[in-house]
């Protein structure tokens, strides 16, 4: 399993759009995000420009030993209700190496200790057993099931909504003293 120090989150930059475009055009990756694959690069670039100053989302590139390994996002951030949707994609060549768990912890730490969110939630395909296992290991619990929520590969898919609360996360991670280390001198 990779060391935490080998994995870093950094803000999504314009230079990262080619990497994001590769992920967006991988049908096996995008079916778990319930998104249509095969987005044009110009569409992605326009979307980036439109959302660059949007305070309701934080998008990070997962860097593993200096290589782009995935994305983790906090979107639909609601500062009144202190909640956000959590999303993660690990590039296929980096799957199965423990990166999802490590990167998720970094993003969760950011959400709960920097943004002071009260709740993170996610939507996952009910049949995505590997992801559900990781989310449970991270402390997410099932809130409910959404029936025929998304149409993927010619059929409707059921999804599970899972969540974790700030106090649960902080209680489970207090022995680590937080995962985020200040970088400013």
Automatic annotation (TrEMBL):
The protein's annotated pathway: Amine and polyamine degradation; spermidine degradation; Amine and polyamine degradation; spermine degradation
Coiled-coil annotated spans: none
Catalytic activity, EC: 2.3.1.57
Main location as per UniProt: cytoplasm
Listed GO MF terms: diamine N-acetyltransferase activity; magnesium ion binding
EC category name: transferase
Catalytic activity: spermine + acetyl-CoA = N(1)-acetylspermine + CoA + H(+); an alkane-alpha,omega-diamine + acetyl-CoA = an N-acetylalkane-alpha,omega-diamine + CoA + H(+); spermidine + acetyl-CoA = N(1)-acetylspermidine + CoA + H(+); spermidine + acetyl-CoA = N(8)-acetylspermidine + CoA + H(+)
Alphabetically ordered keywords of this record: Acyltransferase, Cytoplasm, Magnesium, Metal-binding, Transferase
Stretches assigned to the N-acetyltransferase domain: 7-167
Keyword Transferase tagged: yes
Pfam family, one: Acetyltransf_3
Subcellular location(s) per record: Cytoplasm
PANTHER family noted in UniProt: SPERMIDINE N(1)-ACETYLTRANSFERASE (PTHR43415)
Protein family (similarity comment): Belongs to the acetyltransferase family.
Protein name in the entry: Spermidine N(1)-acetyltransferase
